[in-house]
Structure formats: C-alpha cells, structure tokens
Amino acid sequence: MIEMRDLRKEFTVRVRKGVLRREKRTVTAVDGIDLVIAEGEMVGYIGPNGAGKSTTLKMLTGVLAPSAGSVSVCGLTPVPQRTRLALSIGVVFGQRSQLWWDLPLRDSFALLRHVYRVPADAHAARLRRCRALLELDEFLDIPVRQLSLGQRMRGELTAALLHGPSVLFLDEPTIGLDVVSKQAVRSFLAELGATGAMTLVLTTHDLADIERLCRRLVVIDHGRVVHDGTIEALHSRYGSRRRLVADLDLPLPPGFTVPGAELVSLEADGHRASFDLLSSSAGAVVGELTALASVRDLSLVEPDIEDVVARLYRS
Ligand SMILES: Nc1ncnc2c1ncn2[C@@H]1O[C@H](COP(=O)(O)OP(=O)(O)OP(=O)(O)O)[C@@H](O)[C@H]1O
C-alpha cells in the first residue's frame, strides 16, 4: 500500500549571521527512509520533536515533493498524481481543519460528497456508521467554529472517511482531547482497523494511542528509522523489565538473591520487596520467597512504553 525507498527531504533555510548577513543552511528533515507498509497494517510512526514525522506524512500525502528517493501510496506517486491520490486516502491533521468553519458539520459532509463525487447511497451508509460510532448527532447542526475540540475531531475523522479511502493518515489525532474523547477516537480507529480493509499510519506523542491501536511501531530520529517492529520487540531490545512487588509477613533477610532477578527496593521495614525480572520468571521468585516467609500480596507491573521510548530517544 505504501512504499518509501531512500526517501529524503531537505529544506534550505536562511540563518541570520550579524545585522545584515544571512547564511543559507540545509536542514535534512528526512534522511533516507526505507519502509513498506502492507494493506490493512496499522503503523505507529513516532519520534521526538523535529524527527521528521510530519515531513514524511506530507510527502506521503502529496503536500511536499521529496528531494530524493521515491514514494508510492496505493500505487500512485503522491505529488504528480495528487488528485487521484486524494480519492484513495483520508488525512486528519490534529492541528488543522478540513471542515468549513462557518458551516454545520452536516453541510460540510454534504459538500464533501460533491467534492469527491461520492454516490449518494455509499455516502449515506458511511455517514450513518460514523454518526453511530462517533456519536455525532447531538452536534451535527452546530457550526464548526462553535464545536469543542473533541467534537470537531470526531467531525474531522468522519470527513476524512466519507469518500471511502483505503489509507488513513493521522497526525496527532488525539492532541488536546480529554480522556473521554480520546477513548472515543481510539475505539473508533480500533474498530476501523479491525475490518482489515483500512491501512492506517498514525503519528502521535501520546503512546497510549500506539499501544491501543498499532501492532507495528516505527520510530524515527533525525530523519532515519531507528526501530521498526512490534512494541514487544522494542521492550526486549531496550531491556524493559517486568517488576514483581511482594508483601511478606516477615522482613526479607539481608543478602537474599534469586538468580535472574534483581532486588530493586525493600520497603516497609523489609516487608515489601520489589524485584526486576531479568531472566527469571515471576513464579521462580515467588517460589524462593515462600521458602522464607509467607507472601501476603503480589503484583506484577508491566514495563511502561513511555519509559522504553524515553530511553530510546535519549540513546
Ligand atoms: N518548511 C520547512 N522549512 C524549513 N525547515 C523545516 C520545514 N518543515 C520542517 N522543517 C524542519 O525539518 C525537521 C523535521 O520537522 P518535522 O515537522 O517533520 O518534525 P516532526 O517529527 O513532525 O516534529 P514534531 O513532533 O515537533 O511535530 C525539523 O528540524 C524542522 O525544523
């Protein structure tokens, strides 16, 4: 569905050098990206600020021409075939709107049907589905300028889907949304992805979006791919550890060790012990503990994707 081969984008910027002097400088935003995304994949495309995510999305959607390399989406070359491409892709940029500010959503949706020349019955069926799943009915007749951010975002998602695209590009779709609206947007996207017919590329700084929606995670930094794989692969590559916390009826004796586990803290006068599981299983640690004291309570803390991604960005 999407293919990028040694894709590059450079910008020339003028930097002030003294009162009157300006110097030309080249900024490499995308520095040789090779990626292939198959039909039906849901890919999280993340990276620190300035990594080149938006620039990549702009090249994929035909907004920017690459400086070098090639890109194809749905078998089309985005810039020269931009008009045809627009029929096959949907785009949601969280910071910008594709809706008509003074029109109610209902009218924007009707206009989009004409812009994309969508048959009336197909348009009506898609709108019905979005109305139900995104609960649009209570604000369909309100002008877009008066909608809350969460309501507008639900409108934007609908607008991006009414012409039946097969690829959806989302740039920060949950930015600024409250927890309820975030959940509504995520559930909707999950449902969309579950059909297997939609290819989805999502950039976000909210890693919960990725955890909820994407099997595949591509991390870029300085315009290059630094990780391409599952979230689990990211955890194992960066040594994420599960943590076992045990409450004991007796204090843990000094010098207690379990092979493959690391005692990371001892609290409550030695009654609460936390172990990072390196190569040992939780069961093995519990087995060793019960030989010494009775275990009153246990919890297992899964590694946090925020931590592992922060470590990756730092490295
Ligand atoms: N039009 C432009 N002119 C000059 N430099 C640009 C332009 N657009 C982007 N850049 C530069 O390219 C680099 C990548 O920017 P880009 O917006 O793609 O990053 P991003 O990963 O989307 O960042 P963020 O998470 O902050 O949105 C940055 O150094 C940015 O300053």
UniProtKB/TrEMBL annotation:
SUPFAM superfamilies reported in the protein's UniProt record: P-loop containing nucleoside triphosphate hydrolases (SSF52540)
Predominant location category: membrane
Topology of the protein relative to the lipid bilayer: Peripheral membrane protein
Key word Nucleotide-binding present: yes
GO molecular-function terms, A-Z: ATP binding; ATP hydrolysis activity
Biological processes, Gene Ontology terms: response to antibiotic
Residue ranges of domain ABC transporter in the record: 2-247
Keyword entries, A-Z: Antibiotic resistance, ATP-binding, Nucleotide-binding, Transport
One of the record's GO cellular component terms: plasma membrane
Compartments in which it is found: Cell membrane
PANTHER family: ABC TRANSPORTER ATP-BINDING PROTEIN, ABC-TRANSPORT PROTEIN, ATP-BINDING COMPONENT
Name assigned to this protein: Methionine ABC transporter ATP-binding protein
Record organism: Couchioplanes caeruleus subsp. caeruleus
